[in-house]
Write a structure and sequence with these properties.
alpha+beta
Length: 267
């Protein structure tokens, strides 16, 4: 019997908007202090420097306003359900990299770029409304609220990238970290539907996944547990399953509690 269809997770539109702006503000505060030497440092993202990574963060926020400037796509339903977004991004990585390099080269004043991106976002996404409007994105049409949740992923993941490159601790806004963690957990459950393994990322997410015997009460026989940042790094390929186990950043119990073949979820 196939697993029961689960109701999609709901996100509060205005809380998500607030979280996006708060996390962007943390990154902006850090970026405006960077020296030329720091901006030239390498990152773990291939050939990108810190400057290019910082430009990408601004581009991700500005994409909301650009999408809302376009006519609303036809049809009552979005092309892309939120849990499918992480896997849909990989096909566009090459074009994104080209756009980032052009943007970083054209905007030497990153603070001005961040100011423009933030002003455009706040003008395009008012502090009211429901977020039900459809908008065009690189991967297809999405609901505005869902697209804002994807912005928490972009912001939190790249905050972590900046922290790694700089040896800093740019803070994580709790609601942004929560939304990012939950979306990537739901993406796993969508990729491998089932109820034989329970994946716990306290305090933000618990999902069941992978086909097989389903538990209904008590402690499940297959459990994976880790913290939010480790989960995000696993889901986005910043760390590997075997390494996280070796470093005791993940606990996995049960014969089915091996997620290596399912990760990363986002390329």
């Amino acid at each position: 019997m196939p697993p029961a269809k689960k109701r999609p997770r709901a996100y509060d539109h205005l809380r998500t908007r607030t979280a996006v702006l708060a996390q962007f503000g943390h990154v902006r505060d850090a970026v405006r202090t960077l020296t030329p030497d720091q901006l030239a440092r390498p990152t773990r993202l291939g050939s990108w420097t810190v400057r290019e990574l910082a430009a990408h963060v601004a581009m991700g926020l500005a994409s909301v306003g650009r999408s809302l400037d376009q006519p609303e796509p036809p049809g009552p339903k979005p092309d892309v359900a939120l849990p499918r977004w992480p896997s849909a991004t990989a096909a566009h990585a090459g074009r994104i990299a080209e756009d980032v390099q052009e943007l970083a080269a054209a905007h030497r004043d990153l603070d001005a770029l961040y100011e423009e991106a933030e002003a455009g976002f706040t003008a395009a996404v008012p502090a009211s409304g429901t977020g039900e409007r459809l908008l065009v994105t690189r991967v297809g049409s999405m609901r505005l609220t869902d697209f804002l949740v994807t912005r928490t992923v972009e912001l939190v993941v790249h905050t972590d990238d900046l922290n790694e490159a700089l040896g800093w601790e740019i803070p994580y806004e709790r609601q942004a970290l929560a939304a990012c963690t939950r979306l990537l957990a739901d993406a796993l459950a969508d990729r491998a539907p089932g109820g034989s393994v329970e994946v716990r990322v306290p305090p933000f997410a618990v999902v069941q996944c992978i086909g097989g015997p389903r538990h209904t009460r008590g402690t499940p026989p297959n459990v994976v547990e880790t913290g939010p940042l480790t989960w995000i790094r696993l889901a986005t390929g910043r760390t590997e399953w075997a390494r996280a186990l070796e470093d005791a950043e993940v606990s996995a119990g049960g014969e089915r509690a091996d997620l290596a073949a399912l990760l990363p979820l986002m390329g």
